[in-house]
Design brief:
mainly alpha; 74% helix; disordered N terminus; Phosphatase PAP2 family protein
């Protein structure tokens, strides 16, 4: 036996539940993308929630929204990712540090690609809006942090899944509110960004574990071979 169960960034008990959540999230992303492809106005669901307009919040809430939005901007994102990676390394979880970078990159990259494919805009043709990259970013980072906490605390299936989904919901709702309040996105853009991260991050975590395990197996095989060849 190895230390894999404790070093895995996607704990085995959580894989079926998060896999199901990821599949459902991916379906939502696709359905919303088809519904709003090429649109430049809020849809029925958007106006039912709130009609996005620029400067729809006033101080002091506007300052909170701007500060939250900064976390998804390049400078703020680099600070958050660097802090997360540093925390993972201090906790001696290098695999989680790799996931922090990989998951964020995959979530933001997927959101960027989907924006070009869907072509939904807000406040002008130059502003592609679906899905929200800011929301995808913060949600992905929150998922990584929650997965790390789940493994660190050795939480079971129910507690671990609840923590991961709650962290994703809080992060997505926080950034989503800021994006809608500042008029940068429609509510369905935010939902699409949240679901993008929820779909991509568990898959990235699984791939990270699989790749790391294969590399560990190869190192173990080489060590064993070297030991057998060494003269006694």
């Amino acid at each position: 036996m190895t230390g894999r169960p404790t070093s895995a960034v996607l704990p085995p008990p959580l894989r079926p539940w998060l896999g199901t959540a990821a599949a459902l999230a991916a379906l939502v992303v696709v359905v919303l993308g088809i519904l709003y492809a090429g649109h430049s106005e809020p849809g029925g669901l958007d106006t039912w929630i709130v009609r996005p307009t620029a400067d729809s919040v006033r101080p002091p809430l506007r300052y909170v929204a701007l500060a939250t939005d900064f976390l998804g901007e390049p400078a703020g994102a680099v600070i958050l990712v660097a802090a997360t990676v540093t925390g993972c390394l201090l906790l001696r979880r290098p695999r989680a540090a790799v996931l922090a970078v990989a998951a964020v990159g995959m979530a933001v990259g997927t959101a960027t690609l989907l924006k070009r494919l869907v072509g939904r805009t807000i406040h002008g043709d130059a502003n592609l809006s679906y899905p929200s990259g800011h929301t995808a970013f913060l949600t992905a980072l929150a998922l990584v942090a929650a997965l790390l906490a789940t493994a660190r605390l050795s939480l079971g299936r129910t507690a671990g899944t609840s923590l991961v989904l709650a962290a994703a919901l809080v992060a997505g709702a926080t950034m989503g509110w800021a994006q809608v309040a500042l008029g940068a996105h429609y509510p369905t853009d935010v939902l699409g960004g949240w679901c993008t991260a929820l779909a991509v991050t568990p898959a990235t975590a699984w791939l990270t574990d699989r790749t790391a395990d294969r590399l560990a197996d190869r190192r173990a095989d080489r060590t064993a071979d070297a030991g057998r060849r060494r003269p006694h």
